[in-house]
Each structure stands twice: as structure tokens, then as C-alpha cells.
Amino acid sequence: MRNLILTCITLTLVATMTTGCRDKKTTDTEGGVGSELIGLTDEYGNTINPGEDFTVTRTRVPGVNLSPVYFGFDSYQLPGGEMAKIDSAVRHLQSNSRHVCVVEGHCDDRGSNEYNLSLGEQRALTVRTYMINAGVAENRIQTKSFGEEMPAVSGSGEAVWSKNRRGEFAIYQ
Amino acid sequence: MFRKLFLAGCLLTAGLVVAQDAMVTVRKEGARKETISISGLQVSGKQAQIFKQTLEGDLQRSGWFKLGAAGSINVNGSVRDSGAGIVTACDVVGTRKRFNWTRTSSEAEVRRQAHELCDAIIKHLLGETGIASTQIAVVKNNGPNQADLYVCDADGYNARRLTGDNKAIVGPRWDPTGRTIYFTSYRSNAPVLYKINAAGGGLSTFMRFPGLNTGAAISPDGTKAALILSYQGNPELYCLELAANRLIRLTQTKLAAEASPCWSPDGRSIVYVSDPRGAPHLYIVDVATKASRRLTYNGSENVNPSWGANGLICFATRRGSSYQVAVMDPAKGEASTQIVGNGESPSWGADGRHILCSRPAGGQTGLYMLDILGDPEVRLTRFQGNWICPNWSSR
User: Fold this and answer.
1) Global ipTM
2) Are A114 and B230 within 8 A, CB to CB?
3) Model pTM?
4) What tens digit of pLDDT does each residue of B299-318 get?
5) Phi, psi of B277 (to 5 degrees)
6) Contact, B275 vs B283, CB < 8 A?
């Protein structure tokens, strides 16, 4: 009987957690990355584990100055002259073993806000791939796109736009 | 000539053509309209006056009518203030059909009642879907990473702010019921998907993976959500089955970024943006088979597709240095593409005739309604400031 009651309680709890996964109030889920994804499966029935999000689980390390990487218009190819900046970020991570990095991708304000979100993410991922190839462990680098929403410089014209098409390094621990 | 042929093609594709040949002729020429008179609607009181003015504006904006002292359609009767609102009792008389309209409305419902009467006239006498009762979701951009989500009526009135955190918002989308809006917000300093009640309140997190969470286009039957997520390595298109909580990946493009999903009216396909060859273009994927095909090649960019209930896709195309709104029939291919005006972020109206878009002008970005049948565009003049990413509800 006791076991039956415990089973019922457990089932109820699991059901609550599962059905509430995408409908919790924002105040409940803010900061709780993945908590709204409980019970989500892929098409083969495997449970999806989205993993840790550094911007939620860790704190930003202040005072780390790493230069942004700049990109060409509508491009996420790394210009040749920008590699040295990424090398600096790689060296920082190699000499600070408890630090992790979120590469933040940005775009200029021309074009579709939605497409720029994806373009910014691709830019950040290009930088991430370079860092992995340079020897940083995959699980130490994440990406976040700001699209065109967070320009470094306000205004228009190529001098402004070229400063906004960028990848920035945010260091967490 | 080509334009007229195109418009006729639009109408045929859209299934808008009714049995009478005379009606086909009228619609082909676009500019010609049914005459309608509301001078037989007697008004008593301030709220009643607002009702009549709202109705008049709606009828004009619909594009189907020419208002005058007498018409082939006449709205007769009375609308009067009742203290707490208005009482409306009228007959709408067309040449072949007529109907009676009697309502008691609170003061808060006066404008909505006028919108509903306009749509009822269009539905009962023309057999068309109206836009007067629909709503617009739109982002007011206040500066870098500063924005809020608003909704308003299709005439630009009754604007309400839904969010209050003044953080960047991208891509608001109505669900098919017109009750919920999905959007990506940076309110927690990351691109996370939220949903909110259009009537206000009920803000909740919808999808929060590490990386990018955007899209959240709900299928016409309400059972699935098309999403753009990057948690598996780079931005890809996914379909979330809402009841089963099952996430299906639809694209496998390691070297391309997907964006801006929109469902076909039959819910079988999704049009989206992808850039495997550098510039963003439109693609269509069959949700059941995951087979995708490229839809556009012309223009240096084609973005923000909106697939109307009429079967046509409108999108923003970059020609030279400016963005223009184009319409195409996906069944006929890119050759059917026609430019209908300047603007970005186009969104189909429920009538399959008007397209809402945003356009920079005079240091601000305003909202405009374009008409594929050729009537002059309408600017929603009540909007001062930068209004972007408009999305038009389907009901």
C-alpha cells in the first residue's frame, strides 16, 4: 500500500514536470535553462538533453579585454587578418583553465532582423570552430547571436556597419 | 497589361473568383469598386459617431468599396449612445442579398463592433474575408537592444503594449487562433522564445535551448511549431509536435543558416530562408518527407516569406540597395514574381489582397499596407517612431 502511494506521488510529479515543460510562467523559468524542456524527445523517441548554458549557470569574468573579430557584408567567412584576435582568445582559455567562452555574434542593421539572428549565430559558430581547431575543448565554447540588435556603433554607412559585423568574446567562470 | 494578367492570375490562384463573370471583370481591374452608402445610418451620440466613422474608414480601407450618397449596397438604420455604450440596429441591403445587424456594445467595444460589421458586409455581400477585425503584432524599436511588443487593430487604433522590459524583440508571430503571439526576446539577455496572450498577460517561456531560439510559427491546425534552433551545432529548421512534445529536425545544412519559417495554408510545407551559397534565398520543405527545394534565385537577397491563405508567398527582395515587397505563386515558380511596393518584413492580410510591411522613411520606420490589386498604399499614420517586424493575424 505504502509503495502504491509512493508510486502515485512519483507519477503525479513526473506528469506535472512533463506537461508543464513549455508553459511555466516566465518568472518560474527565467534562469532555469532547460527546465522548460523536460520531456522533449527527438523523432526517434530519445530524450533531448540541451546541456548547460554558460550564460545561465556561470558568472561573467570582468576585465578581460579581447578584441572583436570583424566580418565582411553578409558573410560569416573569417577574413585572414582576424585570426590573430581569435588566437589571443585561445591563449586566454589555455592559460585560464577554469574559464569558458561565449562567442557573441553580431550583424549590421541592413536586412531582415530574423535572418540577421541566424547570420550572427553562424558568425559566432565560425569563430568557435576555429577555436576548437586551435585546441580548445568543444565544451568550453558556446555561442549566442544578437543579430542586429546590439550594434557597437550607432548610425549608418560602411564605417559604422564594418564595426558592427563582429564576433565578441565573453569570458565566464 | 502584364500587371493585369498577373492580378488575374492571383485571383484565380487564390480562388477568390465567384461564379458571376461580372465580378471577375471588376476584380481584374482592381480600381473598380462596389458603391456603398452608409448615409442611411442615423447617428445619435458621441460613441455612435465613432462607430460610424470607424465603419467608414474600414469600408474604404478594405479596397472593395466606393462610398457615396447612394450605392448598390445601402446600410440603413440607427446607432445611438446608450449610456454604457451603443445600440446598433441596421439593415444592410445589397442588390441580391441583405442581412440584419443588431448589437448592444459597451463603450470599449464600439470600434470592434464597427470592424465586425464591415467584415460582415464583405462576407455576406461579396463572399470575401475582411481584414477590419484582424490585429497587428509589431515591435517598437526604441534603440540598441531596446524594444517592446505591441498589438493594435488593423486600422492602427487601439495600440496596446504587451511587454514592459524594453529589450530587443524579433519576429513576433500570431498563432492561428489570433489569441497568442510567439516572439524571440532578449529579456533574459539571450535569444529565447516566449509566448504571450494578445489580450495581455500570460507571458511564458516557450523554448530555451543554448544558442538561438527563434521562429515559432504555429501550423494552421495549431498542432505544430516551426522553429529555428542552433543547439545541435548551427541554425537549423525544426518542427515541434506540440501534443507529443517531439522535436523533428527538418534541415541538415552544416554550412548554412536557416531563418524565418512560415507554414503553407495546407500545413504540409514550410517556406523558409537559407543561405548555403552565401546570400539568403527562399526554400520550401515538405514536412512529411523533409525534401526541400530552392524557390528563388533572382535578387541579391530574398527574406521574410509570408505564405497567404490565397496560396501566394510574399517576401522582401533586395534589388540594388533597397528592399521591395514581392509576391509569387510557388506553384508557378519564380517567373510569377511581381514587385508590389517598397518595404521589408511583409505579412499577408487575411483577405489575400493586402500586405502589411515596414519601411524606413524620414528617419523613422513606419507601417504600410500595400494592395496587390493596385489601390494606393496606406500608411498607418498613428505610428510615430520605429515600428518593425509587423505580423498580421489571420483572424
Assistant:
1) 0.88
2) no
3) 0.88
4) 999 999 999 999 999 999 99
5) -110, 20
6) no
